[in-house]
Structure formats: structure tokens, C-alpha cells
Amino acid sequence: MTKRPSKPQTRPRQEDTPSFRGVIGRLQSLAPTLPPAARRVADVILAEPNRIIEMSITELAESAAVSEGSVVSLCRQVGARGFQQLKIVLARELVSDVQFIHEDLDPGDDTARVIAKIFQSNVDCIQATQKSLDLGAMEQAAAAIRTASRVEIYGIGSATPIALDAQYRLLRIGINATAQVDSHVQAISAARTGPDVAVIAISHSGSTIETIDATRLAREAGATTIVITSAMRSPITRFTDIVLNTVARETRFRTEAMTSRIAQLAIVDGLISLVAMADQDRATRTLQHTFDVLSIKRI
Question: Which residues contact 91 (CB under 8 A, 6 or more apart)?
């Protein structure tokens, strides 16, 4: 009888490893033995842990006067894959479990209170984004989209539906647009752009590796790069010509966009309207044509 080979044991992912906890305690015990750069990062984290979970990796590096690589190195020394995972574990030590569902919620909230808080959070996000939005940057982005031979839109994870919506809306007004939501296709697409192409990258944290890579490749190819992000100082902005900033308090506790998706959609709406208003005749004709085409899809 032939013995069946045993299945190789797979190493658990770090985010699933129960032993990865107690970030503050680990940093306190490690701090005396750390080299100068890592020690500065640890000191900043330990001094204001609540502020750290609101920061991007770029902002923490600037605060500690070190490179982003030094931040990542320290994160790995305490057992995290990187800064994003360290923030998540740190947040678990600082906030209640229910705040990972939504940061404004309390365990005793009833249905009416939950709904009121969620809706108000979305309203606050939209209003804060409107107040902070750079109108000049919006005009530049709309002009780049309008004059491009084609528009490539990149989004991964929770940014995927925003990218697909932007593609749909741009096509409706006659703009040649394609949403790329696979990281490999993004890389190929980005490498094949050029000065006549506009790229819209969507990243709530500004730290999504796949989106950063695609944006960098597009920038190197000569494309005009536009990013919609909640982190004005983050890795992706180094490869961006035009930054459109959303404001979302959820940055503190989660990697996924929740209320910020509402603000991202509002920025997309604004861009579509600006592009359409700049060429009203063409936009109106195309909208009417696509409306007629889509009418056969409805009973």
C-alpha cells in the first residue's frame, strides 16, 4: 500500500497569529535595545499611541525624523508585517470592539441610535471633505481627464466599486475610460500609458502597495496621475501630480474605507460634472445616446 504524502504545514498569516498582540508592551521592553532610528519611532508611538492610529506611514516617519523603511523595520521587530497591521493591533488595545464596526457606536446603542450615528457620520464626512477640498486641484484633474486620449482608473479592495463607478460615469459622458481592479492588469496598464493618458488612483490609506506600484509605473511612463485619498502625506502621493483629499475619521481604526467611500463618490461626481460642463454639447449628446441604448435594458 502506497503511503500518501502528508500535506505540508502552512505557516499561519501574521494577522491570524494569536501571539501578535500587546504592541505597547513589546515596544516598551524593546526600546532600550533599539538602534537610534528605531528608538525614535518607538518613542513617538509610545508618547501618543492614539495619534499614531490616525497617521500614515509617511507622517510617522516625518514625526520621528526617519525613513519609511525604518518604520517598517520597527514594525517587523514587534511582529507585524508592516505599519498598517501594527496600527490595527494597536487600535485593538485602545478602543472597544464595537468601534471596529463603526467608531461612533457604543455597545448599548439601540436601532434608532445606530442609524442616527451612521447617517450623521456620513453627513459629517461629506461636509468635511467639501471644506478641505482643493478646488484648483479639482479643476486640474477635470482638465486632465477631458484632454486625455484615455483614462485608466485603479482601485483595489474597497476602492473597487468606486473605480467601477467612475468608469461607468465617464463612459456615459463620452470619455474613454477603463477601470483596472486586478493588480497584475494594473501594472501592465500603467506601464503602457503615456503623456496622453490620465490615471485616477483611489486609495483611502494612500498605502496600498498595488495601487502605489501602478501609480508609480504610470507616472514613469509620463501619464498625468490623480489620486483620491484621505492621506495627503502618504507613499502614493510621491507619484501623484494631483491629490484630491477626502476627510474620514475612520482612518483611526480600519484599513477599509467605510464613510470615506461616500466622500470618494462625491469627488467622482464633482469631477464628472466639471468634465461634462466644460463640453456641454458633447456630454449632453452622449448622455442622451447612452440613455437611449440603456432604455432597452429596462421593462
Answer: 53, 100, 252, 253
